[in-house]
Amino acid sequence: MPMYCPRCGYRELDDPRLCWACMDGEADPARAMEILTAAEAGNRDALRMLAEIDDARAVGVMLTAARHPQSDIRRAALTSLAATRDPRAEPLALDALRDADERVRAAVVACLAELGGKMAADALATQLAHPPDGTPAATALAWLRDERAVEPLLAAIDQPRLSGNAYRSVGSALGWLADPRTVPPLVHLLNLMTDRWITSQQVPAGLPPRPDWGAHMVATDVVTALGMIGGAEADAAVAQARERFGGELRYSQMAPLSRPFAYRATRSTTDRAELVP
Question: Which tens digits make up the pLDDT trace of 15-27?
Fold first, then answer.
């Protein structure tokens, strides 16, 4: 039976006292010790909380857990290491790019994006040629403002079977790069999403419309990306899309679903200068 956090209701916890979703009590020394002890024992929820507690031993526990035989524990430890941005994580993360588990490698990519630096960027660039890591690695490179991400992301956005969430991630990454070369493909994607939205509204008389909210979410993130890039072509495309959507498109907050690196959240704003992370 899944266990629930008594405070926020989050489910599927190994221990309902260790809820990384609401992160209560991290500053309390006794609570910090409880989290550390559980993390040392391999508790995934505690490992995800380690980045939030004020204890000098936390990073050491994460570094040890990142080499654990169980892949879900390695993944949780690397996720917390990304939040700390501790330089001791870099050699471990570079080595973990060869991990056999795809989800662990995804956590490594996010960790390297948070650490930044030339070694991290070069390591991410080597992953571009290794599917299925290529698109996440390109997204991470875009976060680091590395132009090596441009071509892989443009190739990814042209894939006809790309999922909605992947479209959002790639579109956001192209916005981070702020490269004028990415405007035409983003405008093309925005027009496709706008057409899908309009088509979803066209139903026989007497029936309620069935809005294509997937297209709406992708279009919102593309509008945000074009707003970050700027220029006459981008501004004109955004204005046209808003008109065709009936004024329902606004700059997004770049939710965690559309960006893999939640520790550097951008604020919701229409000010282009402040949209750049």
Answer: 777 777 776 545 5
